[in-house]
Design goal:
By secondary structure, the protein is mostly beta strands. 5% of the residues lie in helices and 36% in strands. It is built from one helix and twelve strands; from the N terminus they run ββββββαββββββ. The strands form three sheets. Strands 1, 2, 3, 6, 7, 8, 9 and 10 form an eight-stranded antiparallel beta sheet that branches. Strand 11 and strand 12 form a beta hairpin.
Amino acid sequence: MIEQNRLTFNGEGLSEIITVSKFNKGVRLGRSSNYQKRNRRKGVDRLGFTSEVVIFTTDFMFKDIDNKKERLAEILNVTEPKALTNSSEPGIVYYAFPVGDIDSDETSIFGDGTITWEIPDGVSYSVPTYTFTNEDINGIFQNYITVDNPGTEPMELEMEARFTSDNGFLGIESSDGTVR
């Protein structure tokens, strides 16, 4: 049996009142190109790109009819983006803002509809915190730690260092060779 896709928004389990039939996020780049026309020449000059709001949709069906529409409206009534998690992507959170009206099609027994989510910053965030250490390997204490960012966006490194001896230096080398 296939496990149902479970959504949580702003700490509330949406899957308690709706059954998600489709969580559509596709591959959204959230940008469009800007061009300038050329005088008396074919083609255009590309000026760069403009960011756009990334949009996801959730198709759903209410689990039963008892005040579920009012409860869904109460959960989605927020004034700023809130955490949206999806069980098919464990450890990932989006900061989403529900927009538009949700028309409920009453042709099914309990009604179904679509929630439209705007993701203003256009990215997802990793929830887990990772710990890297320079443990000894085969009896040799390592003098470096490699931190890998497998994401698609640059990230800020938040680091806490604990020294086991009297040492006053911590050097950090970025991927471009800069040492700080």
